Amino acid sequence: MLKNTTLKMLALTVGGLALMFAILPTVPPQAVAESAAAETTSIEGNTLAFDNLRVFTGNGLSEATRVVVRDGVIDAIGSDAPLDDLPVIDGNGATLLPGLIDAHTHSWASAQSDALRFGVTAMLDMFTAPGLMQDATAGRNDYTRTDRAALFSAGMLATAPKGHGTQFGVDVEVLEQPEQAAGWVARRKAEGSDYIKLVYIPEAKNLNSLDLPTAAAVIEAAHAEGLMAVAHISAASAAEQLIDAGIDGLVHVYYDEPANAQMIKTAAQRNVFVIPTLAITSVIDGQTPGKAILDDTELAAQLTGAQRATLSQSFGITESHGHAQRSQQNVTDLHAAGVTILAGSDAPNPSTAHGITLHQEMELLVQSGLSPVEALQAATSEPARIFGLEGRGRIEVGARADLLLVDGDPTQDIRSTRNIVHVLRNGYIVDRAQAPAAPPAGKVPSALGAFEDGIDAPQGYQWTTTADDMMGGASSAAIEQITPGAGGSNGALSVRAENKPGFPFPWAGAYLAAQGAGDLSGYSQIRFDVRGTPARYRLMLFAASSAGAPPTVEFDVTEQWQQLTLSIDDVAGFEAEQFIGLAFTSPTDAGSYEFALDNIVLLP
Amino acid sequence: MKLSNILLHETGAEMTASLRAPEFIFPTLALPCVFYAIFGVLLSRGGNAATYLLATYGVFAVMGPAIFGFGVGVATEREKGWLSLKRVAPAPAASYIGAKLITTLTFAALALVPVYLIAGFLGDVALPRAQWLTLFGTHLLAALPFSLIGLLLGFRFASGAAVAVSNIVFLGFALLGGLWIPISMFPGVMQTIAQAIPSFHLAEISLSVIDTNTPRNVGLHVGVILAMTAVLALLAAAAWRRQP
Fold it and tell me: How far is B199 from chain A (nearest CA, A)?
């Protein structure tokens, strides 16, 4: 009898275990990233094959397990396509996707290479300076080796005097009445804009907006020129008016209230698409999506200084007004009604970064009710279809070999798009490696300039000028020693700054340049004497890792000498250990500024 | 009677005894899955925390039946003179230990079931089937060194003390071995201490099953565990012979 107890217990246990293992959720064996990478680092050309993987075509998973690329073009897809003697990347169960398309970015500096390293092979810019656009979009249809994502751009945006878009310092040609629309759009087309973006925020309290007749005229003029018109909106009422006026797409989702069902129906009927940019909406609602990325050690190791800098910034908003939740609900409603949703990051706005934020946006879309497959479509085939990007966003024979290989199955778990094994651009494997971190730097000396016998600077440092002309802007600056200085001292540093529009964040002023990187982390304050044209000036801090807008501390200057002490502790986005310089610069507003600096000292 | 027959009878007796005292067996089965549900799933900060903690809480789950089943059980039976009786009975010592071991492994397996089910269905843990099975095998084998530790405690302490000491060993191993909180979150000194604790090495072996990307010296951990198990087995054999 006891013997039977044993046998029964063991049989029950074994049977129960067998049942448990039969029902536990399973995934296919993971591809081993290291081995795949090691095998393929030697592939130099843009003719190669992928084998033994899942293929997401841009539409859905394919039966195929093999993709052949010749001269940067997809040549064959199948399970028995001949491999001949092509170099082969063994996917080992990984998933091959079309390169991602970010449908809402603002591009300058390293944007395109930062995006590409995270699998974004094409990006749709929604406002940048026309001059920058022309450089950045050049060569996008070539099949040559490149470290940049392909860029399509709206160029300049249509906005009102002192409207949204004018605050960044780009020399914006503003619109005031409908009659200007046709000429305005024609000039954009001549500059190379791929589509027209307008700003329509009549409900905004502190920014002007186009009026509805002018916005409608811009839409009409764009259509007359054969261009699509897309709009920045925040309010459901504004969205409704533009949909009635024939807008092609909205580049944000409205977040003030749920839209009425009729409007959603109209949007669906007229094929209006929406790029919700949920990540940035969460940032203006006080959330910090960038922090989640910085806290993920695996992802953080793949970021450049520029990406770390923008991810750690914020709008200074800490409380929620429900924008994030409402915008997600609005996406849910729009999606349910059949409105096309596209994934866009709005990088490099605060708490976002080129490339990685698009992966987060796809996850937010899934949280808002899209299936993982639909979220992937929103970042691949759908933007390609809507914006007419031929040969992109799909894995099909004849398509450009802009590809993303990830571990896992993103059609099941959208987060697995972040497990990047390889990015291919025009069939070439993109070098995703980061430059090694700079060696530890020496401490920055405390006294930075007394200007007694000339423009003196500490050993290894030099005072010079800085202006946005080095980045394609039009501002300029000049410095000289003047006498006497503050408090009857021998001399001071005089700065003349000419601030002209032409760059997203114009600057001109005096720059203390380090010959190598220095460690500024031991200091918490900077003290200096200053007088000049009364205005709010800026102290900018530069680190070796930074790019894009440098971290900035503002201070007010009067006609009289005064001593100021600014805190440089905890400046968001500034890596103090890699300090390479600081600048005292003019306000962003255009104009001429003259100011003088003396006795500049760093304090612990 | 053949040895296998004796063993089956002994095991049946052992199991029946355990099932008749559910107040002892229930907590060891419930505690790991409740802990795992709270820390691995409910309070999880996303990412693959649920998977990571499944590896370590699985070790935790088998520790209970092993340490308590052997430690307290042997201490009580020794005190009551049952062990002396066993030694003069015409059944080999191996059947006594073997029966206890089979019972322990069975209850260890049963303790793992709810943890695995919570992981799979509440924690969204999905693994290739081979990994589920390997992980389970690793967890089950982890019961062996703990059983030997339990056996030693049972020989060394009186039944009342055995309960207290077993609890200290059980909780100490769980915490210091990094079963509740990843070892990497501990200060350096505690990470060094962990090297001397079997639960740490077993957790690392389990983690190596589910996480192939982090470099781990699996061979070293397996070697340390085999050495520890061998030493414990020798000590247990010596303790058995030394019995009054």
Answer: 24
Nearest one of B35, B197, B103, B242 to A13, comparing CA atoms: B103
Question: Please, what are the averages of pLDDT over each run of 10 residues along chain A (604 residues)?
Answer: 80 89 78 41 84 93 92 92 87 92 89 93 92 86 92 94 80 91 95 95 90 96 96 94 95 89 92 96 92 88 80 80 93 95 93 95 96 96 96 95 95 95 94 57 82 82 79 80 85 89 78 78 90 90 69 88 87 76 85 91 90
Q: What is the CA radius of gyration of chain A?
A: 27
Contact flag B125-A17 (C-beta cutoff 8 Å): no
* Cα-Cα-Cα-Cα dihedral sign, residues B232, B234, B235, B241: positive
* Interface contact A9, partner B, CB < 8 A: yes
- What would the pLDDT profile of A239-279 be if each residue is shown by its tens digit? 999 999 999 999 999 998 887 889 999 999 999 999 999 99
pTM above 0.90, yes or no: no
Residue pair B169/B151 in contact (Cβ under 8 Å)? The answer is: no
CB atoms within 10 A of CB A222: 28
Rounded alpha-carbon distances, angstroms, from residue A495 to A469, A543, A585, B130: 16, 23, 9, 70
Is some CB atom of chain B closer than 8 A to the CB atom of A24? yes
Beta-strand runs (E) in A137-248: 150-153, 157-158, 196-199, 229-232
The contacts of residue B237 (CB under 8 Å, 6+ apart) are none
Give the residue on A whose Cα is nearest the Cα of B5: A3
Distances (CA, A) of B213 to A33, A394, A407, A415: 8, 30, 12, 17
Q: Measured between CB atoms, does B140 come within 8 Å of chain A?
A: no
Peptide bond into A372 cis (omega under 30): no
Residue B243's pLDDT band, with cuts at 50, 70 and 90, is: low
Whole-number Å distance between alpha carbons of A302 and A263: 42
Judge whether B136 is closer than 8 Å to chain A, CB to CB.
yes
DSSP code of residue A22: H
Mean per-residue pLDDT, B80-98: 76
